[in-house]
Amino acid sequence: MKRHELIVIGAGPAGLSAAIEAKKNGMDVIVFDENQRPGGQLFKQIHKFFGSKEHHAKTRGFIIGQQLLKEAEDLGVRVELDSTVMGIYENKEVTVKQNGEVHHYKGDAIIIATGAAENMIPFKGWNIPGVIGAGAAQTMMNIQGVQPGSKILMVGSGNVGLVVSFQLLQAGCEVAAIIDAAPRVGGYGVHAAKLARTGVPFYLSHTVVEAKGTDRVTGAVIAQVDEHFQPIPGTEKELDVDTICIAVGLTPMSQLASNATCDMELIPQKGGHVALLSEYGETSVEGIYCAGDVAGIEEASSAMIQGRSVASHVSMKAGYLTEDEFESKYQGYQEALGQLRQGMFAPKNKGRNDFTETDEGYPISKTLLAHGYMTEEELSKFPAASYQKAGIHPVIECTQNIPCNPCQDACHFGCIKVGENITRLPAIDEEKKCTGCGLCVASCSGQAIFLVDETYEEGFASVTFPYEFLPMPKIGDKGKALDRQGKPVCDAEIVGIKKTPIMDKTAVVTMKVPLEYVHAARFYRAEV
Amino acid sequence: MIRVANPEPFVEREDDDMIICRCEEITKGEIRRAVYDGMRTTNEVKRYLRSGMGLCQGQTCQRLVQGIIASELKVRPSELGMIQGRAPVRPVEIRTFSKNVTDVKED
What we know:
The structure holds two protein chains of two kinds. By secondary structure, chain A is α/β, with parallel strands linked by helices. Chain A has twelve helices and 28 strands. In chain A, helix 1 (13-24) runs parallel beside helix 2. Chain B has one domain (19-97): Orthogonal Bundle (Arc Repressor Mutant, subunit A). In chain B, 31% of the residues lie in helices and 7% in strands. A two-stranded antiparallel sheet of chain B has the order 1-2. Chain B is elongated, with a radius of gyration of 17 Å. Chain B is mainly alpha-helical. The interface between A and B is large, with 42 and 36 residues.
């Protein structure tokens, strides 16, 4: 039997971060992962993350994964891949399947960081090929470079459903609709808005009742649901799709904690059965900890901090950190976590739907929650979204308190302010001059910042927006300007494209539109 | 927990033929009938039907099975308990078990 001071199970964001922290503190640590590559789900995440600088905000998930791997490699963290932990036994003995053999390891401490599995919903035909999880769609697109299908129905409007829908569009698929049984969009409004403006329809209070087809999906039947989430007869609608993508939440993969006889409880806010944890992440079995999604569904940014926090406790218990050193590290990690766990989407607010206004007192858009976009009337209540000034200036259509502030750092002239509390809505400083550089447009992970110039030319305005699709438009191209719900509103001509390394592949595109459409035009479609 | 034979006959439903546990091909009707037959927890249904004992070890269906039992018994899913996590938590070929490496030198 091989003994290690710390065994980490799972080399995803939480597990790798835990191993890095423990190794930095001088511990002998080994990480097991059943996959052929480390990084967990991070390498599928091609979108820019939220948060602040210390949470790697505006960096794409897979790049955060690369940075984490490099940090682990530089420190000499031992990561055993293709190594499936089969069980945890008495005295923290772990059996691992490696090279077709059962190997035994013993840890003075164990951190379970096994992540989560996707939920499924059963409906007629849900087990025919073409009904897939959103995670599977991401693996196909972003790891294997294959389109999951050509016309997709997305079931679930949480952040996973919204982010994967956008990635499906980027991969060249058509997203026929996004549906959700809930009456409101579950994920960030900005994620919904960037889909709606490309023309993807949202059907809230709808569920999928049938996947058509025998050996593959040839269509989907959706229906409206009543307040008890039961389909209302007569409201069925058939959609022409070949793939049904399910994104209805995640469940912690906590079997190992249960196997290790940790006290467990079903906590809906945490997504399912989880081990009961101390404030330091320790289970009821001394020396066994949980970190990341297995401890309760959140997202990768908080999983990374949790991993480090838990490992610092392990290091202290093992004598590698003094209590004071631990205390100061722990406080720092809790502060960073606290920043991410604020606002209307905080874990403690999961399932709440009674927010009517933002922290600043602006009315939350009902159209955004019901259809994925905002009306001009609703936006007019938000100063940064209805900001007007002669010359080029930003318009920030960020209307929910989500933990994010890269826009503040992006502007070198201090034109955009979020402040200490990163869930505050960004405000525009009218005194500071906007140069139209477009860095804020590219830095906004929610793609909610536009630059507008009402005085571009006699009778014409310019609208600058983020663009992450191929083919990239060219200067001089003519097409249609789309409004926030993806409807063509007027002719548009591309007059500027910026793509610098710091923008990290988010192109900042400027189109010229007739002046009267300046407040409506937010996207561009090439003339076919 | 009091268990008595249900005097009412089992009522079939239209969607009883829907597969719930894909790995072991257990239908919604089978799960409903298991509850009718007296199974009261997720673990009991698992042992009775093998739902959640296939390739994915209940990863996909556990919550669905729980939901069906809960709605049959008119209780909250949290009252039904989860499938006890057992080693191996992932499917392992039996030949792997025959290669149990115990005698290894420290590396």
